[in-house]
């Protein structure tokens, strides 16, 4: 293993180093997918099948990675995806990740299941989006939307692919439960079913979310959130073009093409494969973002070339967080920024808008 975080030269290096120091059950909680992890593996394979056709003889002495997401400017077209319970990985949890995102000039997305309150995160002064799970009591969900606006969040991201948690076999085998020190700060903040190891085979987190999340999530919820807030609204978990069109009709500002990092329906289409059809269906009527499997700056460029406005990145910042807190997350984002600028220039692109005109070719699986 590299002697210092700075010696880690790519996001895969950071993951390997973090996996070597984390408790096995926490490592599996972060790394694992649902079922046989077919979609988890396919996400990466789908991105690797996308080959870029670079342009040459272009002056790239000035090459800008700056981009706009949900109406605001950032240093690169990347946001930190919402990930629950980050204090599992480091005592500062989401606070460290949010500070690193601010330093990198990108947005941090706070989860409904964050182990740090939204108010603490927005107080850091960076750009914070709030991710919403639709709860069994709709009024509580809408109260969280109000709370996000009052706290200074800059967008609401409604996750629409979790009527309940997918069957994540690593967590089931580990009988995974939260330690008492890690709690859902936006819910009641007290120990819950998520903290009690199940009596039989199972995951305490799955039991907790099954009790908290509403399986009756429908387009009505989207309409209620849209009516409740003037903040930009994104729907995360869209794979079908028909759903993307319906989202536009509901007045959303963005859809996130995502299969939840392979953690929900095992066998769902890889996000990168679903992206072009969604982009075509919305026809510039809203932004389209991509998540699930992004691991390199070249992946960011691939997403742009396939029509996305930007990407959300989930697991890699967590590996950095586990290794070195804020410094580790910042290193992950610095690596990604350096790789993206390198890929952008080598593809003959002077800026992010130029990248959207790159041609791609798909390798045969």
UniProtKB/TrEMBL annotation:
Keyword terms: Flavoprotein, FMN, Oxidoreductase
Binding-site residues for FMN, renumbered to this chain: 82-84, 111, 131, 159, 236, 258, 291-295, 314-315
Entry binding sites for glyoxylate: 133, 168, 260, 263
Gene Ontology molecular function: any one: FMN binding
Active site: 260
Residue span, FMN hydroxy acid dehydrogenase domain: 3-365
Enzyme class: oxidoreductase
EC number: 1.1.3.15
Lineage: superkingdom: Bacteria
Cofactors named for this entry: FMN
Matches recorded under SUPFAM superfamilies: FMN-linked oxidoreductases
Family per similarity comment: Belongs to the FMN-dependent alpha-hydroxy acid dehydrogenase family.
PANTHER family the record matches: 2-HYDROXYACID OXIDASE 1, S -2-HYDROXY-ACID OXIDASE-RELATED
Name of the protein in question: (S)-2-hydroxy-acid oxidase
Source organism: Streptomyces formicae
Source taxonomy: Bacteria, Bacillati, Actinomycetota, Actinomycetes, Kitasatosporales
